[in-house]
Amino acid sequence: MMRILQHWTWAAPAAAWFLLATSTGIAIPSLVLGVALIATVLAAVHHAETVAHRVGEPFGTLLLAVAVTIIELGLIVTLMSAAGEGAATLARDTVFAAVMIILNGLLGICILVGAIRHREQTFQQTGVSASLAALCALTVLTLVLPNFTVTSPGPAYAPAQLGFVAVVSFLLYATFVMVQTVRHRDYFLPPRAATLDADTHADPPSNRHALISAALLVACLGGVVLLAKTLAYPIEKWVLSAGAPQAVVGVIIAALVLLPESIAAVRAALANRLQTSLNLGLGSALATIGLTIPGVAALSLFADMPISLGLGPKSIVLLFLTLIVSTLSLATGRTTILQGAVHLVILGVYLFTTIVP
Questions:
Q1: What is the mean pLDDT of residues 72-85?
Q2: Using an 8 Å Cβ cutoff, are 69 and 76 in contact?
């Protein structure tokens, strides 16, 4: 698969910019633009992983997280500018959807397929527990606490509160990255017996290859943001014409952004490297909150754009259920097919109640 990616990832940003240049004078079908957007997202993360492999840790992890967060921020900001009345809740819906998709969908699929192939899989509980502790704190502070503050009416922080929570969220995520990549890196490394696939021992790319990937990464990120802006109105129109709630837009954005990490995580689980799958999933969830929320908060404060972060009662119940089940499922350092099935059931309930509230 990696060889195939190397042949077409350079063409994805070129095709995206070509479509953007021609879309001003020619009406290009939304389906074509959507395919180009997905291809460019996959290419962007591929090039980010290439550069990350070259520079090593901890800079590689930071680079990949920043690249993915730029994609997510670009999608959220461009869609917020075209969402009208739904702009205030778009960031909340997207972040919540990302957390639910990661903790229930991504982890559920990885645990399930890994258990089907390997019966039982193991991981280092110390690192996973640290990730879940940081994730629980971030989700409650950003998505639940706004409902109970009284300085500003409604499920929204006052400007001072929003700025404080944004700074705290970023600092907590930065602390987690330091612990994961420097101070206690061994807590997040898979057992040696589970690192049997060729990708783990692949030689790093050359400096020339890394520089080319860095340039293509910048082109991909720009293409993703502009394609998302072009598709903002068709996505909004499609959701409204289908009679679906505004929150479905957030689910679409989260699913699109998490697609590359999901593919990599499932491949790792099939290779009996569940630790890598958990690192990818939980790390993406932490980056989604720890980096996206501060970015959106800064936009809200400086551009005077309203933002509502507090979840509704139904979503809070599903969030707490997800956090409790995740903590219990990953509390023993071993997983079986049952844990995967439980997480996927919760994901199904979340998706169904989002479409049919």
A1: 68
A2: no
Residues 6+ apart with CB under 8 A from 125: 330, 331, 332, 333
Nearest to 8 by CA among 38, 32, 29: 38
Contact between residue 222 and residue 21 where contact means Cβ atoms under 8 Å apart: no
Query: What does the mean pLDDT of the chain come to?
Result: 82
CA dist., res. 194 & res. 321, Å (int): 30
- Burial bucket for residue 119 (CB in 10 Å: 0-12, 13-18, 19+): exposed
307 contacts: CB under 8 Å, gap ≥ 6: 88, 91, 92, 156, 162, 296, 297, 300
Q: What is the pLDDT of residue 7?
A: 65
pTM (2 d.p.): 0.83
- pLDDT score recorded for residue 5: 47
Helix (H, G, I), strand (E, B) or coil at 269: helix
